[in-house]
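Researcher: Go.
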Amino acid sequence: MSEDMQNYTNEENTTETMDESAPMTMEELLESTGGLEEIHRGKVVSGKVVDQVDGGWLVDVGYKCEGFLPTREWSHHILVDDNEEPELGQELQVQVVNIRQGEESQLIVSRWRCEFDRRWQELEEKISGQETFSVRGLRKVKGGLMVDCCSLEGFIPISHLAEEGRGVNPGKFIDEVFDVKLLEKDRRKRRLVLSRRTILDEELKEQRENFYRDVTEGTVLEGTVSSLTSFGVFVNLGPIDGLVHISELSWQRNAKPKDIAKKGDTVKVKVIGIDQEHNRISLSVKQTQSDPWETITERWKDGDTATGTVTNVTDFGAFVEVEPGIEGLIHIGDLSWTRIKHPKEVIKKGQEVETVVLNVDPVKKRLSLGYKQLNDPWDGIEDRYSRGQDIPVKVVRLADFGAFVELEKGVEGLIHISQLSTRRVEKPGDVLSEGQEVTARVIEVNPDDRRIRLSISALEEGDRRQRAPQGGARKKKSDGSNRPMTNFQSEEGPITLGDAFGEALGNLFDKD
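Model: Structure:
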């Protein structure tokens, strides 16, 4: 080899040696490894958790620096059943969120974003080609229920949890698996809205068609009490709820729903009305039971004693319920032996009273009761009052023929106008007034006719006899002049003409 060639070869070798030993720039290194081409924002890459630092973890993704996985980027509330934090050495997929170039290069990655995309893809595949799919209840939230749908959280509004928007507690669906339909999905907003009601309404429609086909007015069914109101009870019959109005709950008058049934009770009802257009069913409980009026004569007879509760007080009397569905009337005239203006003077609503059955009429559904009959003040009246007894009485009312006086509560007597005074009386009001208290003598006691006769004039005549011996013949003449002209008889015997003339002559001589 020539010297020139040798020199060229030596220079070339020297150049190659120098080129191989010369250091490469960062850009040359990245280009030689293809890093700039493979790592970009939004790319999903696999990595390994290599360290835990403040605020997150470092993940080796084969880049010039480890990717930083912030704590907030590890998981997301829409992801179901996520671990609280990753473990060192754990393999996972992350998405590049941000790249910072230069000497302080930095790589920010996110785990939940790529996990969300993966699960959303599974959801798309699951619901593709089918209307319904299963979900699991997670937790109750304001306005509805959160569910697990392909490990993503979905929302069911409370109005779409039950059929026809019926009120329901979302908490009862927690951990329950049930079918739903998709109402709305938005990947960008990460929004899933589902409905259970849509499925139920379709099933309910078919069930109701079968119900209306099989049930008619008069059909007796069994149902479950679903709710109580002030006006009645709702009973669930399966595909529909029917209403038992308060008037159809019991034969008992003014029965309160809470006293007849409670929620969850199984009851037998009779269909008494169907409104298919508005899906309304009218029911009756009492019509499944026998009418107590049909057998009332088997339980009650005239003269029986009945204890009941006063249900109503009117101007003409008081109604008393002696058994459920059976009310009797105590007429105002059978409430008290004394004259009263209104029944409330004797009896009050809600009061428990003892009565006697006066009459039973099953045809007209009437039961007549008596209240005063159990406390008749005329019983033993002859033991308390006798002829010739002087007693204080009170004038209660005046009539043309005399005055009615009260001896005791419930016992009245009559003082005839002829017995009001020893003098002639034109009308009772000239001698007595209502409310006046006087003393009178009993002249007759008749318990059979419930009659007592009294006299005031008999007392006056008794007083006159006591004064007659002291007044002598002159006093006798004076007393005789005050008597009615038609009464010439005294307690001592008849007056003769001789007695009359002799007394007159005696008076003449006295003057002389």
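Model: The two ends are 221 Å apart (CA to CA).
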